[in-house]
Design goal:
Layout (H helix, E strand, L loop, with lengths): L7 H5 L4 E7 L2 E8 L7 E5 L10 H6 E2 L2 E5 L17 H14 L7 E5 L1 H11 L7 E4 L12 H16 L2 H8 L2 H11 L5 H14 L6 H13 L13 E6 L7 H10 L3 E6 L6 H4 L1 H12 L3 E2 L5
Parallel strand pairs: 3-5, 3-6, 6-7, 7-8, 8-9
Antiparallel strand pairs: 1-2, 2-5, 4-10
Helix pairs in contact: 3-4, 5-6, 5-9, 7-8
Amino acid sequence: MKPASPYGALLDATPAKHSEIAVLGSSTHYWEYGPADADTVLVLVHGFRGDHHGLEAVCAHLRGIRIVSPDLPGFGESEPLTGHVHDIEGYALWLDAFVGQLGLSGRAYILGHSFGSIVVSAALARGLATPQLILVNPIAAPALSGPNGVLSKITLWFYQAARALPLAIGAPLLSNWLVVRVMSLAMVKTRNPELRRWVHQQHHAHFSSYANRDSLLEAFEASIGSDVSMFAESITVPTLLIGARNDPISPVPAQERLHTLFADSQLEIFDNVGHLIHYERPREAAELIVSFLGAGTVAEPHS
């Protein structure tokens, strides 16, 4: 039996509008939450192998803000990039174009989670304008040289092998149930059994909604070959960093160092959570977002 979302009632109160737009020659699908005429617009950029569903729990808690949440190229329902590699430069170029085509350049606030934090930071460093920046579970240090460097290299070899094998063998490997569950178990920290079951279900439902093996490997190589610290010194807008004490991907010392690289940043560290703030602590994240932006409100429980 599919576990019910603990945030379902809140999300039902702010239904999403699904739209599609051509960006850089390929189709980008995006979802909008909240009032279309709100003065404050927040663009969300999800993490690696996820899609817009991953940040829905945060959306569920926000009121009075227009939220625009696309599927990254090659993930969810969005087509892969056309004429561009799925590297950080390609994704940054796409984000700049996406925001521009919606007429939001310079006025939309930008939020990136995990891999999305790198994409967003790179886009700002190359010229995307935003009043303020929010990074949730930011990738604060190089994956290949950090404490999880060996695991990152093993994972890279796995992705490379899965792409090199014949399609009938390699493709099922990447979306294998056990592979997804091991990843999910490594990241989930909550001890709430119902929440744990729902997080695992979310990963199984959305973690394999990518376009093809080639774009997936390119994106993974981008995710481990770059990090936010590479772009932080070029970003001058006020920045909110929402990190976690038990994040296995970004240790606290790396998050604290990243904080010092920004010209104007605020670092908030959540205890008893890891790399899944957006699933396990979305209400607290929403409270920080509302306070930082000085706009919107946080929904009352089950409102």
